[in-house]
Amino acid sequence: MMKYFTTILLTACLALAGVVAQAQDNYYIFPIDAPPLLSANFGELRPDHFHAGVDIKTGGVEGAKVYAAADGYISRIGIKPSGYGRVLYVAHPNGTTTVYAHLREFTPELEAYVKQQRYRMRQNNPDIFPPASMFPVKQGDVIAYSGNSGSSGGPHLHYEVRKSSDQSVVNPVTYGHIKTADTKRPLIVSVYWIAREEVAGVATYNPRRTPVKALAAGKYGLSAPLSVSGEGCFAVEVRDTKDNVSNKFAIYRTSVAVDGEEIFGLKIDGFSFADTKYVNDVMEYPLSTASSYDIIRLSRHESNPMTIYNSGKGSGFFTPQNGQNVRIEVEDDCGNLSTLEFSLAVSEPRQRVVSVPTGSVPVIWDKEYKRTTGAFSVTIPKGAFYRSSFFAQYKEPVTPSTPTTSRTIYSDIYTIKGPETPPHKAMNLSLACYLPDSLRTGACLARVDMESGAVTYAGGKWNNGAVTISTSAFGSYAIARDTVPPTATISFAEGADLSGKSSFNMRFEDDFSGIASYVATIDGRWIILEQKSMKSPHIHHFDHDWLTSGTEHTLEVTLTDGAGNTSVVRRKFRY
Questions:
Q1: Which of 20, 66, 127, 226 would you label with 528, given CA atoms 20 to 30 Å apart?
Q2: Is residue 353 part of a domain?
Q3: How far apart are CA 430 and CA 499, in angstroms?
Q4: Is 559 in contact with 520 (CB distance < 8 Å)?
Q5: DSSP bridge partners of 393
Q6: CA dist list (Å): 75 to 30, 90, 98, 109, 185
């Protein structure tokens, strides 16, 4: 009864608490039985998303005890072979939720509950929201054991602190929730001047790199003259490191001041998951993805709504004047600061002939765009591009020398080309083509590599004479078909004696569109298939509560691929 009233009081506190806790001594403890060493920090710039927490090293092994960082209750449990893998969420009275991801296993009490819920929901990879009264925890309680599940590149604990009200994430290091040794200043590698010119309502950018040199601890200057002209902005190539580890880390804060006046500021204290894809606009995407360092553009496009930018201090774009002094600051999440200072030398603008690329049209970022070329229609929603850009779509002039593959193409091939940075929102593509009734089953849209001839699945199904998909990928598209059902490889032979075994496994494969769904039963009863990661086999652990020993049983697995092809595999065994 006391436990019940404690939980009710805790829930009431959570309802009243509307703000995230700032640094509070001893409110959170370190969440794992491991040294406070990080392999990744908050806000790392990754294609399509910021890193939403910190990754804590576990010495390359699984099984470290994971502790509740503060009093609260388990509010959510997730299991899937991608993303966070096995994950726990703990809600706290101060209005925050902590997240513990890539786990190997939960505590026995939680494992029993999860098993029950998986059978009830008939889901292998459920998202479970227990009642607040069911699993209260105290600070320091063991809630799980570290692992390597989901999209994990090695054993570690991914840890987050979120605002419970909207599930936005905060920086656990700068807020003081996590402490790690760091006496190293960020490294500045180079600076770019990115000249901006406009044609047909589209700004074109011309980046020019200048290396820098260290003058003293945390002090940098140019290693070669930097000549600027016209209007533009800077980008900075950087890397951060921490004590006792060899990993690379993200920068926390950057700023640019011209003659002592700040014209741009960026500070990654937190963000919402709805905004995380704007990371593609925070980095100088085509340069950063090709570099082993982070290249951060020190300007903000008007399409970017993120609150990580300092307000009221300018967008970072400016028209330089000869002799102006520039100071670029780069700070890590532990307060270590590096600066780059130099004076501007303004030159005459380079004679660049900027014109609309052949076959392209301007797409204005805040307006919807629609165009049909032959049998191919494209719709780009407003806000799909971070800035107005040139876009082209055309039918490929297929010739006898065009590479071919073993997969038949049933339509003309159409190509779309856009900015080097992927769209923030998906485009709608629709390709029409006549197909007789006998060829419509399994029809889908595919991407075609015009150099190698490789054909990969893009999605969609035949409907009213066309195939339509939503995608963020530029490239070449055509209609193909997938008519081959997926297959299952099971670890035991027909009639095998599995008595004394605790489990069996199987692997699913599909030659084109991929596995979309699967269901397994034993004697008609739904069973759990566990998959640690997308590359791992599916494992069933025998349930001794209902599986009768000493008799014959029938396993049945039904597989469906992305094109709707279905296969059923049956296998008898004794147990």
A1: 66
A2: no
A3: 54
A4: no
A5: 416
A6: 20, 6, 10, 15, 39
Q: Which residue has the tokens 């200048």?
A: 210
Can you tell me the distance from the alpha carbon of 209 to that of 158, in angstroms, rounded to the nearest whole number?
Answer: 35
The answer to whether the beta carbons of residues 185 and 228 sit under 8 Å apart is no
- pTM for the model stands at 0.92
Longest dimension (CA), the chain: 89
- Looking at the structure, tell me whether residues 192 and 330 fall in a common domain: yes
Burial group, residue 402, by CB count within 10 angstroms (0-12, 13-18, 19+): middle
Rounded Cα–Cα distance for residues 340 and 166 (Å): 38
Token pair of 83 as six digits: 């993303």
Containing H/E element for 440? Answer: helix 437-440
- Provide Rg for the chain, Cα atoms: 28
Structural domain for 264, as ranges: 187-346
- As a whole number, mean pLDDT of residues 177-193 equals 96
Residue 253's identity, in one-letter code, is R
For the segment 46-83, what is each residue's pLDDT rounded down to a tens digit? Answer: 999 999 999 999 999 999 999 999 999 999 999 999 99
Section 403-411 average pLDDT: 85
* Paired tokens of 536: 């791992």
Alpha-carbon distance values, 172 to 39, 42, 143, 179, 446 (Å): 14, 7, 20, 9, 42
How far apart (Å, rounded) are the C-alpha atoms in residues 474 and 384?
13
Q: Tell whether 68 and 131 lie within a shared domain.
A: yes
- pLDDT tens by residue, 90-148: 999 999 999 999 999 999 999 999 999 999 999 999 999 999 999 999 999 999 999 99
Neighbours of 354 (CB within 10 A): 12
Identify the CATH number of the domain in which residue 518 sits.
2.60.40.10
Is the model's pLDDT at 12 over the cut of 70?
Answer: no
- Tokens encoding 54: 């910190």
The number of domains in the chain is: 4
> 491 and 474, same structural domain?
no
- Which one of 288, 319, 346 terminates a domain? 346
